[in-house]
Amino acid sequence: MPPWRWRGPSPALAAMGLLQLLVVAVLASERRVAGAAEVFGNSSEGLIEFSVGKFRYFELNRPFPEEAILHDISSNVTFLIFQIHSQYQNTTVSFSPTLLSNASETGTASGLVFILRPEQSTCTWYLGTSGVEPVQNMAILLSYSERDPIPGGCNLEFDLDIDPNIYLEYNFFETTIKFAPANLGYARGVDPPPCDAGMDQDSRWRLQYDVYQYFLPENDLTEEMLLKHLQRMVSVPQVKANALKVVTLTANDKTSVSFSSLPGQGVIYNVIVWDPFLNTSAAYVPAHTYACSFEAGEGSCASLGRVSSKVFFTLFALLGFFICFFGHRFWKTELFFIGFIIMGFFFYILITRLTPIKYDVRLILTAVAGSVGGMFLVAVWWRFGILSICMLCVGLVLGFLISSVTFFTPLGNLKIFHDDGVFWVTFSCIAILIPVVFMGCLRILNILTCGVIGSYSVVLAVGSYLSTSLSYITLNVLKRALNKDFHRAFTNVPFQTNDFIILAVWGMLAVSGITLQIRRERGRPFFPPHPYKLWKQERERRVTNILDPSYHIPPLRERLYGQLTQIKELFQKEQPAGERTPLLL
């Protein structure tokens, strides 16, 4: 073989070549990822360039409104939807530098629809904020063709001519979203289809609206987490893949949907309008809420747990924990616990609906009324000893919780149960069914109630410190009893890591308490005897038995009179010593 013949690359050169290929591959992958979300990409001062379908992160300052621009719009695109999101500070998007009510939108989730003219390939708009502090934003442009429906194209309620935004309102009980009806898509340069000319299949009345709900991770109020998860709720494929479809509305339904408010829990809502004739869809601008305010003050997201609630439910959980393991043995203590629950629940509903007093005062009065109810139930058992009445109360409390769990499932969101009459009748029947089923085994019913209700009180106490969806099992029922409009709300809640852990603790406590009490009460009387009869028999025995030391104890009236006499002697002036009587001669 000639000495000049090539023998192949050396191992060192081969390794260097592989390393270069690896670096090129990594850089290429980074470019592909950056294409999905561009961060702070201002091309020049006061000008932000956008690309279709790519997220942009940027900061808006009060004295510096920004101009945004999009180049090279494809000819098959007939309209664009621009949307900008921030966590809680308002931003404004406008068609022109001068803000007009029918040409701009302000909020934490704002969007505009750009209907493109023939041959138009460039689009400009303006962004700004009225806040004092800089606002971190995320924005994106989405393009649609002439076959896609136009979100908000038949707006008659809000300011914009074409309004793709979802308007959100919330209070303690419910969160309501509203949106404008959509219109059919049309080509560039063509007049839009009329919104109210006929209701046949060639009009916008054939459109359907799917309402979606997406829960952010629990106990996370950071801006980065919100903007990250908002990327999953902007386009139609992402919404369908990640969110939960709650309800489907037709064009004849009211474009308004209510949900149960979850203070401190981030929730994103979006609506997808679907054209069943062309099988095309378009997404509205998603809206988000935490059902609380980020501004400092009472009820802010940073201070949701009230001190009064923590004290109340902590003391309630201590008693419930004792009942979970020892309730059947300490029968009177359990009756006090059951009476406290029944009286406290109804008393809280009564004073909340009839009086405007503050929450802390209501909670104190509820604790007092519950204590009175507990002592009353104990007194009824002590005097009359009617086991059936006491066990009816015990069974109804367990039935209440089981009925609440039933409607906590997706069954509670069925349309038939949005009627208050149907809901309360069904709820009451389930609650009454429990004591009826266990009528032949009252001890088992009592032990089950002790384990399940006592352990759930621990869950409520944990819910006053940490965010957990399990507390809404009973809170949703309380909301429905307090608010006349809550019947229309969907009661979906997130079920995440915290909830699985607390559910496991609840189940462990309940099973442990029930098992322990069943084993300990084996071979013992089912229930204690009538206290009043025992007291009466003991009193008669003491009266007739002279050898009983208690027989020689003076009556209560004489004992009290003797104690008062001793107290009076403490305040009398001591007589001086010596003889004061005159001597008799």
Automatic annotation (TrEMBL):
<feature type="transmembrane region" description="Helical">
    <location>
        <begin position="389"/>
        <end position="409"/>
    </location>
</feature>
<feature type="domain" description="TM7S3/TM198-like">
    <location>
        <begin position="314"/>
        <end position="518"/>
    </location>
</feature>
<feature type="transmembrane region" description="Helical">
    <location>
        <begin position="363"/>
        <end position="382"/>
    </location>
</feature>
<dbReference type="GO" id="GO:0005886">
    <property type="term" value="C:plasma membrane"/>
</dbReference>
<protein>
    <submittedName>
        <fullName>Transmembrane 7 superfamily member 3</fullName>
    </submittedName>
</protein>
<keyword id="KW-0732">Signal</keyword>
<dbReference type="GO" id="GO:0032024">
    <property type="term" value="P:positive regulation of insulin secretion"/>
</dbReference>
<dbReference type="InterPro" id="IPR042502">
    <property type="entry name" value="TM7SF3"/>
</dbReference>
<feature type="signal peptide">
    <location>
        <begin position="1"/>
        <end position="36"/>
    </location>
</feature>
<feature type="transmembrane region" description="Helical">
    <location>
        <begin position="311"/>
        <end position="328"/>
    </location>
</feature>
<feature type="transmembrane region" description="Helical">
    <location>
        <begin position="421"/>
        <end position="438"/>
    </location>
</feature>
<feature type="transmembrane region" description="Helical">
    <location>
        <begin position="445"/>
        <end position="466"/>
    </location>
</feature>
<dbReference type="GO" id="GO:0043069">
    <property type="term" value="P:negative regulation of programmed cell death"/>
</dbReference>
<keyword id="KW-1133">Transmembrane helix</keyword>
<feature type="transmembrane region" description="Helical">
    <location>
        <begin position="335"/>
        <end position="351"/>
    </location>
</feature>
<feature type="transmembrane region" description="Helical">
    <location>
        <begin position="500"/>
        <end position="518"/>
    </location>
</feature>
<keyword id="KW-0812">Transmembrane</keyword>
<keyword id="KW-0472">Membrane</keyword>
<dbReference type="Pfam" id="PF13886">
    <property type="entry name" value="TM7S3_TM198"/>
</dbReference>
<dbReference type="Pfam" id="PF25992">
    <property type="entry name" value="Ig_TM7SF3_N"/>
</dbReference>
<dbReference type="InterPro" id="IPR025256">
    <property type="entry name" value="TM7S3/TM198-like_dom"/>
</dbReference>
<dbReference type="GO" id="GO:0034620">
    <property type="term" value="P:cellular response to unfolded protein"/>
</dbReference>
